[in-house]
Design brief:
Two copies of one chain form a homodimer. With 536 residues, chain A is of the alpha/beta class. The first copy, chain A, folds into two domains: 2-253, Nitrilase/N-carbamoyl-D-aminoacid amidohydrolase (4-Layer Sandwich); 259-456, HUPs (Rossmann fold, 3-Layer(aba) Sandwich). The first copy, chain A, has 17 helices and 19 strands. Chain A has helices at 17-33, 59-75, 122-125, 155-161, 179-194, 257-275, 289-302, 319-332, 342-351, 363-384, 394-399, 420-433, 439-443, 463-475, 480-485, 490-502, 504-508; strands at residues 2-9, 39-41, 80-88, 93-101, 104-110, 133-137, 140-146, 166-171, 198-202, 204-207, 210-213, 217-219, 225-228, 235-242, 245-246, 281-284, 307-311, 335-338, 387-388. In chain A, the strands form four sheets. The first copy, chain A, has a seven-stranded mixed beta sheet, covered by helices on one side. In chain A, strands 6-7-8-9-12-13 form a six-stranded mixed beta sheet, with helices on one face. The radius of gyration of chain A is 26 Å and the shape is elongated. Chain A starts with a strand and ends in a 28-residue tail after the last helix. Chains A and B meet through helix 2, helix 6, helix 9, helix 10 and helix 15 of A and helix 2, helix 6, helix 9, helix 10 and helix 15 of B.
Chain lengths: 536, 536
């Protein structure tokens, strides 16, 4: 007995129910006419997109989503589809999947395992389902599960006991480096343990801080991968099952780690700009490595014609910074401007001379320079409707080596979750595709150029010391004592930990950025600003 | 049989375990020696403060908190205390209460109802307890509950069935207008239904966006209030129980609504400044009602000597604005400065003249003025270590009538959850105590003064129309259609809803503010920035 199942790895806009509906209908039509599929599986919460956050608390939104399901049942006739939607029983809300076929709901399943950790808040919105769901289609008994269900022990087994010969999983599983390997390892082991084949369909696309990477796949009952869709792109493919056995189909290769992070960042920028209706992006290009990388990412995401770079030299800017910035802008073919900040810095210095009389120079004067750049960039963003990209990296965000309303001014922060050492790796990766970032930008010591002969190493431990400490403290929740026990110098650890703790207030006002690590600043790491815990 | 129970309504610093421990010990000593209490009840999660957010995910923090409990057991000998702490069994975490007496843990209770809505995320951290806890003390059977437990049907009844003759409740119940009345109504009804007396101890103080208002109370078994502590201040009081009957004690009166909101705001500013170690506060004083109110609040919170005001006139600033700003600064006795922004505005205009050549004036030029003010204020904040208070209100935050990095620049936003109409009421209330805000500030039409003869009503519906629409849309999750059905003009509703939806990106970068409504922007309302839902 043959059953052709299509995996619809599609890119939604959260909340745009009408557009999502059209996308579902078009994809189902394609799966029917081009792929000759019998059944199409869509990602989790297909109709609303994921995560819809507090939109899910609104009765009008839930009513619209439920009406959309019935419209969809009417619009799909000659193929069966499995779609996710926020089901209401009038009182409680469920994260559900419905099987639609010939105008009726053939089966309905309520997600049992509701993740409420990391970036997930599902227990804020949903009530957990209590039972498995198995439906018969074309003579085959098919079980339904949703995302966290198949990471949780017991749910696949219960679905099997309910009679499933094959399990479908609707997912919205966000990317971080290594997540794809982890996901396949866990799910293949679960399938193998239950001796059941499994069809895993993931969403693709960027949604604020999250990237959904796609890489949907089919596992055979022996735990082997029979099919894998590509990462970071929309793709609708079909896999034929003969009885319980999926027939081998094309397995897209997986990107190496750094390449996958690069492509995640490109997709994140592209979707944030596109889904929010910006007319392109602009950024300040300093001649340093961070803005050099952001420019390359932006061009790869949007095309050179949609990106503008602004050089804003000061008296502390070295000639090589301007030269290298221009070299890259030319190499990438983007329009660039140069606006010296001295007149504004001078004006503020004069205006503040009376209130600052008798005080010593400190970071205040450095911040004024950074904020003058922020005013210029925001003015250009406002005038043109282009998204201002900030260029700060995760190491800087961690320790607060950034100026609020200065270099932190902007609508989106592509490198917010990229530590400095990874910035270098990503730059090397990009140059391996085509050399666009001047070599000197990569090799010179990093500097904010806000004071004479300043380099980052004056204020911070070197990044090859700082980054591993930050990873342990921020991502792994290790204590200072345990980090020191790994051989890091107590003064470096104390310094880093203190700076991370103190700068929560800055991070709270930073633009959203793209999560690529196991713990990103933002919804993934929720710290109080006011905190007396020192942990030293 | 007599039992004297002290209610320790105290103010913690989240995460400062050592300081909280000292505070508990000192309060217990006071309750023993001054109040002759037998037992002291402290608020929820006494040892760590509430909410500790993702600090609760750190093994070192949990180990420190659990060690602190054992230290506390050693330090308290001659009185029994009930304290809250994050209990670990090595794997799971519980929101627990322990009764300490003569060096041992007499009883331990795990919170059963874990709120995960609004500002609460307890299911992110804790596992729910499964059973009631009743302990015998001085011949009386006492049940333990924690906060949400006593709002949830069935838990008091189960505690009673387990033998409780009296229920203690440890709480961290955040303020919003009307919350005290709601809290007493619900809890008194629960006590009466179970025919049990109840001792309700609430935390007091500000923690980032939350205010805990205190107002701890004791309910008799007939549902009547036998004692109430004051709102918004630390207070340790004792109530004597003869058998099940609490003896009447002093009931602090409740503030009327507007007064309670005023005192909540004062406490919020005071605790944010104090707990974060700022050397006072400063703000831009425009001559408008918002900054006039923030100045009065700041002085009431910190004292005139800790507050500075900065006038920053432009060519569009009317003389009366400067005059009124000076009048208020003088009336309140605060230091003020006046720095005209024209030189910086002129510099930016020149610097941008080439890239802006041929474009029409728009809000870009208005934003430049606001951002010049932001640079000046942040420079003064950086130089002096004073907290910059923003002055925007909730109506503006809702519709985005504010400039990112301009008037939105600052560390704390006292009026972030105060709609414009309430700003007026609060100003009247403050002037009823002593006239400090010039009458003309209250009576003149509001204006941003960023363009010639500009008033808010040019860009927005009048506030007596806008505010009720915003309350329905933001706080009550009503649909546009339902708001229109209440009689609001479709064009006003459409305008307001569209502006709220579009400006999520601005709010995401706004400073924290003080929650006083049933739904504040921030952790209380979690919307996606990227959203295609229009709901119109």
């Amino acid at each position: 007995m043959s059953l052709k199942i299509a995996l619809a790895q599609i890119n939604f806009v959260v909340g745009n129910i009408a557009a999502n509906l059209d996308h579902i209908v078009a994809t189902a039509a394609y799966a029917k006419t081009e792929l000759h599929a019998d059944l199409v599986v869509f990602p989790e919460l297909t109709i609303t997109g994921y995560p819809a956050e507090d939109l899910l608390l609104r009765p009008d939104f839930i009513a619209d989503a439920n009406n959309a399901l019935y419209q969809l049942a009417d619009r799909i006739s000659d193929i069966a589809i499995v779609v996710g939607y926020p089901e209401t029983d009038g009182e409680r809300l469920y994260n559900s999947a419905a099987v639609l076929h010939q105008g009726v709901i053939l089966a309905n399943y309520r997600k049992q395992a509701l993740p409420n950790y990391g970036v997930f808040d599902e227990q804020r919105y949903f009530t957990a389902g209590q039972q498995p769901c198995v439906f018969e289609f074309n003579g085959q008994f098919i079980g339904l599960t949703i995302c966290e269900d198949v990471w949780t022990g017991g749910i696949i087994a219960a679905t099997q006991q309910a009679g499933a010969e094959l399990v479908l999983t609707l997912n919205a599983s966000p990317f971080n480096a290594g997540k794809i390997q982890q996901r396949e390892a866990v799910i293949c082991a679960q399938a193998k343990a239950a001796n059941l084949p499994l069809v895993y369909v993931n969403q693709v696309g960027g949604q604020d801080e999250l990237i959904f990477d796609g890489a949907s796949f089919v596992v055979a009952a022996d735990g082997s991968i029979a099919f894998r869709a590509a990462e970071f792109v929309e793709q609708t493919s079909v896999v034929e099952f003969i009885g319980k056995q999926p027939q081998l189909a094309n397995c897209a290769p997986l990107y190496p780690a750094v390449a996958s992070e690069y492509h995640a960042l490109v997709l994140g920028i592209k979707d944030y700009v596109r889904k929010n209706g910006f007319k392109g992006a602009l950024l300040g290009l300093s001649g340093g490595i961070d803005s050099a990388l952001v420019l390359a990412l932006a061009v790869d995401a949007l095309g050179a014609g949609q990106v503008e770079a602004v050089l804003m030299p000061s008296r502390y800017t070295q000639d090589m910074s301007n030269e290298d910035a221009v070299l890259e802008a030319v190499a990438l073919g983007v329009k660039y401007h140069s606006i010296a900040i001295e007149p504004a810095v001078h004006a503020f210095t004069q205006m503040l001379s009376e209130v600052f009389a008798g005080t010593a120079k400190d970071t205040t004067e450095e911040n004024i320079q950074a904020r003058c750049r922020g005013v210029i960039l925001m003015a250009m963003s406002n005038k043109q409707g282009k998204l201002l990209l900030t260029t700060g990296n995760k190491s800087e965000m961690s320790v607060g080596y950034a100026t609020l309303y200065g270099d932190m001014a902007g609508g989106f922060a592509p490198l917010k979750d990229v530590p400095k050492l990874l910035v270098y790796q990503l730059a090397h990766y990009r140059n391996s595709l085509s050399a666009v970032i001047p070599e000197r930008v990569i090799t010179r010591p990093p500097s904010a150029e806000l004071a004479p002969d300043q380099i980052d190493a004056d204020s911070l431990p070197p990044y090859d010391v700082l980054d591993p400490i930050l990873e342990r403290y921020v991502e792994q929740d290790m204590s200072a004592a345990d980090i020191i026990a790994e051989g890091y110098r107590p003064e470096d650890v104390a310094r880093a930990v203190k700076l991370v703790d103190r700068n929560e207030y800055k991070r709270r006002q930073s633009p959203p950025g793209i999560k690529i690590s196991t713990r990103a600043f933002g919804r993934d790491r929720r710290y109080p600003i006011t905190s007396g815990y020192r942990g030293l």
